[in-house]
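Standup notes, structure subgroup. Blocker cleared on the flavin-adenine dinucleotide input:
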Amino acid sequence: MNLSDHKDVYVFAEQREGKLQNVALELLGKARELADANQEKVVAMLLGKDIKPLAQTLIEHGADRVMVVDYDLLRDYMTEAYTQAITAIIESEKPSIMLIGATTIGRDLGPRVSARNRTGLTADATKLEISDDEAHEFRMTRPAFGGNLMATILCKNHRPQMSTVRPGVMQKMAADSSRKGEVVDFSVNFDTAKIGRVKLIKTVKEEKTVADISEAKILVSGGRGVGTKDGFAKLQALATELGGEVSSSRAMVDAGVMDASRQVGQTGKTVRPALYVACGISGAIQHLAGMEESELIVAINKDKFAPIFQVADLGIVGDLHKIVPMLTERLKTMQK
Ligand SMILES: Cc1cc2nc3c(=O)[nH]c(=O)nc-3n(C[C@H](O)[C@H](O)[C@H](O)COP(=O)(O)OP(=O)(O)OC[C@H]3O[C@@H](n4cnc5c(N)ncnc54)[C@H](O)[C@@H]3O)c2cc1C
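Run returned:
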């Protein structure tokens, strides 16, 4: 493989039912940085049916070029059809870097595309950068060994250099409606015999009964120090006053007190709210991995040496069962 034939940073612009997923825009923001460091272009791959109107949003968020692959076969996500379409793009365009959101779809698609193209894939990267030495290497960093160390991974001999990134980890660029880009229709010769092996019979949507904590602007998060459902009711009262949601450490999910959909951290969700109030959470590295990019972190803990205070902007040492209701009452009187 002649590595110098490969260039530009490609992003899988995941859409569902014609709606772009936030993670696609977040990845474009990171792709812009990487491409600029190498004086390359950002290319979005937009697959689906009747999705071309979404191309403008991708350009406004950092894409220089959008490759639109519009086929009935791609209306709903199917592993084989999407893999064939992206492989056709790889063979024709020779990307250097390819980023995919670590959603349920991306986690299925990424490994299949990398295996078919005989290249590597770094799953769940938390940091992506181009080295500032002469080598200009693409470095993908992710937690390893249970989050106890960070591993930086290189894909030296194969292209594209692929990585998945969880939603909420990268930051999207502010939309710039003056940005210009090229929109290209890309055609694919599908091997329909292979695609026909799997048929989509019915899509059953899980009812969304819980809020998505990765979208919340304010989170009041509880750990083992909160202890019980009654304890979490105090956090819920504070979250309601603040207009936010309640989230949790893994300790409380494992104890069956909180639902797994509300877990923050390495094996939970990555969040980046404007305000994160950590109540009775010690600040284990696996928890910090999911919330340390929050804009303002307030920690309440009775142990003044708790590691959470190292990432907190504001720390309150004391019993959360007293402090949280006091804060809630104070907010109520302030609003009167
Ligand atoms: C592979 C792997 C993946 C993991 N993934 C995750 C993950 O995604 N998310 C996650 O959160 N963890 C994860 N963990 C677990 C993590 O290592 C910690 O065990 C967990 O985060 C601890 O939760 P905690 O802070 O609630 O509990 P603890 O560490 O027990 O801390 C409780 C804190 O509450 C304080 N406290 C107690 N009572 C009060 C009170 N009345 N008022 C104020 N403070 C009080 C204590 O001082 C203490 O600091 C993972 C672990 C492994 C090995």
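Discussed briefly. The chain has a mean pLDDT of 95.
Next: hand off to the docking folks.
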